[in-house]
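mind reviewing this stuff:

——
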Amino acid sequence: QVQLVESGGGLVQAGGSLRLSCAASGRTFRDYLLGWFRQAPGREREFVAAVSVSGRSSYGDSVKGRFTISKNSAKNTVYLQMNSLKPEDTAVYYCAADSSHGDPWRIVTTVHEYDYWGQGTQVTVSS
């Protein structure tokens, strides 16, 4: 059982930056890989970034070079630093977690494989 709470969303102008945070309960950083997804109105939920237990990271093509995922295990928190934001980045951003199944290098990029989800935080980028 994992609980995830996102924060840091808001309204920002194109070209600006935001940092999202996801606070996890329990022993998430010891046992779980973590990911960020986003969903815009009328569109499917899209993979943004993920980090394995070991610290390996992966990014969706639409955000490579602009977004960075990181984590602070002492605070049980994962972050998404978003730079050079575009109106197309407007969406609800969700934090997700899934068991590593004993593999500290495991990375997952598909929605259906994640078992735990936060409630989401709205990011709106104005033009």
Q: What stands out?
A: The helical segments are 28-31. The chain has a mean pLDDT of 94. The first helix runs from residue 28 to 31.
